[in-house]
Amino acid sequence: MYKQILIVDDDICLAYAIQLYLSSDEKKIFIVDNPNSALQLLKLYPFDLVISDIIMPTMDGYEFLTQLRSDSSLFKIPVVFLTAKGLTVDRIRGYDLGCNAYLTKPFHPSELLSIINNIFNNLNSLRDSKERLLVKNSKIDQLTSLSNNWRCFTSREISVLRLLIKGMTNKEIASSLNLSIRNIEKYVSRLLSKTKTRNRTELAQLSWSVLFRANDGTRTRE
After folding, report:
1. Can you give the residue range of the structural domain that contains 191?
2. pLDDT range class, residue 139, cuts 50, 70, 90
3. How far is CA 41 from CA 34, 37, 38, in A?
């Protein structure tokens, strides 16, 4: 899916030149010539990044960034300052207000493109890390819940589960436990229901060490 980028600059000729350079199948570039119009547009449409000048009439880039960062619906949008204000104090102010990058005019367009791609790559990595963490935490919560409630499993279910985790088929489990295949299917179905897993693969991938330490298989309830 393509990224939407908003350029905020009263130098329209420069803005169109940047638009021409950055536009691709992966990036759609939009232009406004003042921060007030930018704020209105940002509240109407989802943008993935803003490129803004600092020296502009009515509202400068610093005030524009301050308003973005104070708006709960807009504060996460990355902002790149593209400006003639190149003094160290200007750059520090920009970063203190929350800009993601600061590029001084004149600049090479390939550097701007590299900055943009780097921002998007970092955001993608962060999102992927969060998703992996959510999955990990979900599995930990599931394991903790099962470990704390091991008494919901019968000794026969524990026996079936141990053999299932070893990769044995229903037929092999049935032969090992001297039960019918139909009974094994019933036990597997119960295990899937109790563990809230969707299939044998998910069930086998869970770590049951805590559960096994809690129940040594001596209980007789079936």
Report:
1. 145-214
2. low
3. 11, 6, 5
d(CA 36, CA 40): 6
Dist CA 213 CA 195 (whole Å): 17
**Residue 164 near residue 205 (C-beta atoms within 8 A):** no
What does each C-alpha distance from 25 to 30, 103, 198 come to in angstroms? 14, 24, 38
The model's pTM = 0.59
Give the pLDDT of residue 145: 56
- What is the three-class DSSP state of 5? strand
- Strands (E) located in 33-145: 49-52, 79-83, 101-104
User: What is the distance, to the nearest Å, from the Cα of residue 201 to the centroid of all Cα atoms in its chain?
Assistant: 25
Helix, coil or strand: residue 79: strand
Note whether 115 and 36 are same-domain residues: yes
Model confidence over 80-92: pLDDT tens digits? Answer: 999 999 899 999 9
Same domain, 94 and 22: yes
pLDDT score at 178: 93
13 membership: H or E segment, kind and range: helix 12-22
Does the structure show a pLDDT above 50 at 217? no
Do 82 and 166 sit in the same domain of this protein?
no
